[in-house]
Amino acid sequence: MASAPDAASGRSHSVEVEEKFDVDSDTPLPDWLAIPGVFAVGDPEERDLDAQYLDTAELALGRAGYALRRRTGGHDAGWHVKGPVVGGGRVELGWPLGDDDAVPDAIREELAAVTDAAFEPLARIRNARTAYALLSPSGSVVAEFVDDRVRATDEREGSVREWREWEVELGPAGPETDEERKAFFTAVEAAVLAAGARPASSASKLARALGLASRR
């Protein structure tokens, strides 16, 4: 969902409600017009994303359900802290990139209750993303569908993994009640499985980059 920036701190706040799916390199795109509330599909938008994920030597953030990244490219380039999944959604906080790649003090303060240990590189994830807005009859964004081709490096051991995945994330005009969201994502799953997709083998790109294939 859309971020809500704080003018005083520069921090943004959003809640991700999304589903992920694994696909082969040649899987065709789904038919989104069969999804309830989707009237049209926007033009494809290419995004070149490059994210550096960090954690402590003991993986304190990951063990607590958090993720910290610095990402360039796309409309939300910056520092991001993702919290644990709660009620089917995940809070994401964001800060501007700044002049260097040092972790901002504001983020250290935000994560102080989780850890005060030093952060070090954990993984680098490069993503060639094609994004599509799924639009309501009025032209509002019901959801965003992204087709991701990912190359990830585990910075701890140097191993490289590549894959393709799809994500569908609710937008500002998306369903609001739990029942409506359940119906929406049930229809999404039917559409993507019909196109040849599979349920995601990992909970996140970071987990997959680190070789963790089981969903949380």
What does this structure look like?
With 216 residues, the protein is an alpha+beta fold. Helices cover 15% and strands 42% of the residues. The protein is built from four helices and twelve strands, in the order E-E-E-E-E-H-E-E-E-H-E-E-E-H-E-H. It has helices at 60-63, 105-110, 178-195, 205-209; strands at residues 4-5, 12-16, 18-23, 40-41, 45-55, 67-72, 78-86, 89-95, 120-135, 141-154, 160-170, 198-199. Strands 1, 2, 3, 4, 5, 6, 7, 8, 9, 10, 11 and 12 form a twelve-stranded antiparallel β-sheet that branches. The longest helix has 18 residues, at 178-195. The protein is globular. The two termini are 21 Å apart.
Listing every helix as H and every strand as E from the N terminus to the C terminus, the arrangement reads EEEEEHEEEHEEEHEH
Output the number of helix runs. Answer: 4
Beta-strand residue percentage = 35-45%
CA-CA gap between termini? 21 Å
Kindly name the structural category. alpha+beta
Low-confidence stretches are none
Radius of gyration: 17 Å
Q: Please report the total strand number as a whole number.
A: 12
**Shape annotation:** globular
The average pLDDT value, as a whole number, equals 91
Taking the sheet with the most strands, its summary is:
12 strands, antiparallel
The helicity comes to: 10-25%
